Q: What sequence folds into this?
């Protein structure tokens, strides 16, 4: 249990810090300002606006985690879509898809990445060198498929006049932007991600308390999520010790294309059955500390959980934000679109892993 605590406590600390950073940045108006800036640049062009959203969603997922994209970016862009009289489903699906498939670039993009990083003593640079090619596939291929699915929406025109709802800037927005940018730079430089996230959260808390303390009211601290994740770590570890590792020892995947595809496919299937975080923990023993096998498993559990609603916590949170924004989530449609996107993304992501290594 001591080894488990040494692995999980930094992950939980990062979860706390990054959740506070994202929430405070949102309250400072960062995501709203980004959305309106995209609308002004697009000048009524739906394809330009959507491509801008793809870039923002991919960057948000990479540096601030998939949950930030699903929870905080989604309602802002849905409100913008309604304001511009654009079918909001294109924006909704872009957020949830890229929150999952785009979470391959950096350790902070997904909790599964942090667990892999700690298990194999990878630096941020090592992780990026290993995962950059699958990460590119995880953004480009889903975006292409979404463009085909929503081609009729992309042919429409939007109202370019968004000045009336232009959010006000201010010192707190500037400081929040600088802190988030500094956090991203620190992550790329290889800083301890947990320490960086907690320091950024502390800096934003202080700035908000001084400049606009009203924004601190009812600040959601994710204690329930942290306790739930911690309990999940313990349960899966007990299962591994009791029987799971012994059961999985009957198969030792090879580091060739069939072996990597098989491991990624198993990861995606398990994630869609039980959720991606326990899926990674349960199957981690199959990687045998080999970077290529670890990368294949991450491709499966990160880019694959787009078929069942419970496969990713980000998807569950996204659905709640969509309903709150008045955008119904039709799960039959979600399953069909998710399968069309997830299956080729996992397969081509594994191919990119081999070609990029």
A:
């Amino acid at each position: 249990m001591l080894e488990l605590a040494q692995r999980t406590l930094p992950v939980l600390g990062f979860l706390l810090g990054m959740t506070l950073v994202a929430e405070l940045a949102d309250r400072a108006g960062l995501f709203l300002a980004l959305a309106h800036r995209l609308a002004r640049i697009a000048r009524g062009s739906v394809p330009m606006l959507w491509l801008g959203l793809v870039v923002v969603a991919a960057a948000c997922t990479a540096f601030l985690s998939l949950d930030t994209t699903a929870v905080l970016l989604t309602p802002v862009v849905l409100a913008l879509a309604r304001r511009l009289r654009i079918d909001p489903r294109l924006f909704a699906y872009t957020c949830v898809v890229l929150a999952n498939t785009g979470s391959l670039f950096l350790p902070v993009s997904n909790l599964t990445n942090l667990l892999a990083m700690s298990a194999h003593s990878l630096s941020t640079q090592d992780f990026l060198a290993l995962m950059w090619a699958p990460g590119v596939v995880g953004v480009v291929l889903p975006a292409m498929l979404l463009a085909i699915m929503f081609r009729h929406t992309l042919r429409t025109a939007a109202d370019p006049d968004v000045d009336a709802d232009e959010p006000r800037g201010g010192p707190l927005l500037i400081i929040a932007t600088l802190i988030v940018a500094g956090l991203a730079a620190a992550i790329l430089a290889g800083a301890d991600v947990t320490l960086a996230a907690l320091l950024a959260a502390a800096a934003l808390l202080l700035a908000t308390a001084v400049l606009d303390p009203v924004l601190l009211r009812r600040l959601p601290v994710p204690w329930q999520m942290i306790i739930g994740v911690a309990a999940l770590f313990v349960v899966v570890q007990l299962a591994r010790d009791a029987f799971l590792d012994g059961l999985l020892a009957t198969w030792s995947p090879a580091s060739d294309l069939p072996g990597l595809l098989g491991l990624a496919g198993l990861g995606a299937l398990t994630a869609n059955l039980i959720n991606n975080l326990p899926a990674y923990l349960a199957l981690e023993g199959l990687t045998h500390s080999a970077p290529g096998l670890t990368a294949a498993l991450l491709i499966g559990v990160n880019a694959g959980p787009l078929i069942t609603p419970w496969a990713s916590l980000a998807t569950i949170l996204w659905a709640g934000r969509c309903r709150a924004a008045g955008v119904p989530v039709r799960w039959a449609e979600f399953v069909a679109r998710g399968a069309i996107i997830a299956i080729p993304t996992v397969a081509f992501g594994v191919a990119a892993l081999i070609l990029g290594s």
Summary: The two ends are 35 Å apart (CA to CA). Residues 2-356 form one domain.
